Amino acid sequence: MKQITSGIEDGISDAEGELLYNLAKNVPEGQVIVEIGRGKRVSTIWLAKGSAAGNMSKVYSIRSRSERPDDIEADEENTNAGFIVNLEKAGVQTIVNYLHADSEDASRKWKEKVGLLYINTAHEYEHVKEAFLNWERHLSPNARVVVYGSEQPGPSRVIKEYLGNLGDFTFEQRVGTSMVIRVDKCVHYWVIDSNEIGICKHCGRKRNFKRLRAEATETQNRRGQTSRKRR
Question: How far, CA to CA in Å, does 68 sit from each of 11, 41, 135, 203?
């Protein structure tokens, strides 16, 4: 891997790469790996090599809206050519699929179960939260989510929400700046009070149903506005 990835600019460390490798290797058969954001670099190769050592799960590299379209289009040909060369060197060119669509567009039509989601977007709160909102419904019951740059204020805030009373995830591990969280295995039985705060009688987890409903409505409205603009 060091021979393959040397000379490729990327912020992830070897330890973080090995983390992605091991997680991708253990994605169950029939599930896929989705990478959101600034992919097509070292992280993509680590994910694909891990998949090749495991169940040959497809790796989808999808850009987020935080990447500037003009920059992507201006350098797309050169970037793709170099990316394909690196994939061929690693022997994983048949595993990786680069989707020419942004994250939100791709998620609308998505049908496959995602066993591993890697989020490497810009570190603003809105971009990381958008990735969660778009892809949470496609995660398998045992899925893991890796957030790169988890120590930054934006990603840190999103993770705190999803580990707290707005989400359904539990902490698993941190390597470098990458944090791994996974879908909560508890089958919750919610006791909801007059403020719409639920407490699971099995695990004690809290859930703010009022805010969750408000966020769902906001997301639905935003998607509707985006759809109307494209007509």
Answer: 19, 17, 21, 43
Indicate the domain borders of the chain.
2-185, 186-231
Tokens of 24: 């991708």
The CATH class given to the 2-185 domain equals alpha beta
Per-residue model confidence (pLDDT) at position 176:
95
pLDDT(222) > 90: no
CA 53 to CA 26: how far, in whole Å? 9
Residues 6+ apart with CB under 8 A from 76: none
d(CA 136, CA 69): 25
**Torsion, CA 59, CA 112, CA 144, CA 210, rounded to 10:** 140
Specify the residue for token string 């998949």.
Answer: 51
The pTM assigned to this predicted structure is 0.80
Q: From the DSSP assignment, how many helices (H) and strands (E) are in the chain?
A: 8, 10
The whole-number pLDDT of residue 129 equals: 92
Task: Determine the angle formed by the axes of helices 153-163 and 125-135, rounding to 10 degrees.
Answer: 40
Contacts of 157 (CB under 8 A, 6+ apart): 125
Residues 11, 41: contact at Cβ < 8 Å? no
pLDDT tens across 162-182, in order? 998 777 899 999 999 999 999
